[in-house]
Amino acid sequence: MRQVAPAELAARLAREPGTVAIVDVREPWERSLCAIEGSVHIPLGQLPSRLAELDPARPTAVVCHHGVRSLRACAFLAHHGFGEVLNLQGGIDAWARDLDPAMALY
Questions:
Q1: Residue ranges of the domains in the chain?
Q2: Would you say 13 and 57 are in contact if contact means Cβ atoms under 8 Å apart?
Q3: Would you say 98 and 14 are in contact if contact means Cβ atoms under 8 Å apart?
Q4: Domain boundaries 2-98, corresponding CATH code
Q5: What pLDDT does residue 80 have?
Q6: Catalytic amino acids?
Q7: How many angstroms separate the Cα of 25 from the Cα of each of 9, 10, 52, 74?
Q8: Who contacts 73 (Cβ-Cβ below 8 Å, separation ≥6)?
Q9: Of 10, 50, 51, 52, which has fewest CB within 10 angstroms of its CB?
């Protein structure tokens, strides 16, 4: 598992479309405010029961509000055999501030 800055993740998504799965582990009310297009919503508490929905062979970037819950999710995924796990440093808040000023902040 490694930390990835918003600009680095965005560049990789642009360079390699469709190769990186983005998993949003925030709560539904948070996701209703803003989300990264194409991300899969699996709240952190549901991750163990929904693990089969994800491909451990596919690079996986995990997103939360500020990067703390996603760090826990990344550790969980790595422990369960996911090869390339990326934690979005600063979370969706950093994504909005650095890359998408039209995205809602909360």
A1: 2-98
A2: no
A3: no
A4: 3.40.250.10
A5: 98
A6: 64
A7: 17, 18, 15, 10
A8: 23, 25, 44, 47, 62, 64
A9: 52
